[in-house]
Amino acid sequence: MATAYVLINCDLGSEESVISELKTIDGVKEVHGVFGAYDILAKVESKQVESLRETITWKIRKIQKIRSTLTLMGIEGQE
Fold this sequence. Notes:
Layout: E1 2-10, H1 15-22, E2 28-33, E3 40-46, H2 49-60, E4 66-73
Antiparallel strand pairs: 1-3, 1-4, 2-3
């Protein structure tokens, strides 16, 4: 199982709508609003790294009101 954590910055005041949209995407397992340098943390899982990359690139990053993302890829076997 491939896992990534995506840190998201979005437009001011759009956090709730972005969180709601993230929850509808297949592969997004957890979504949390956070304090600090980023607004939202999303945990994304997939059986293959390629489909994980596609979910992040073509679904998550295309959500309107998202300004930027930082993706942290998990390392297999390090649980």
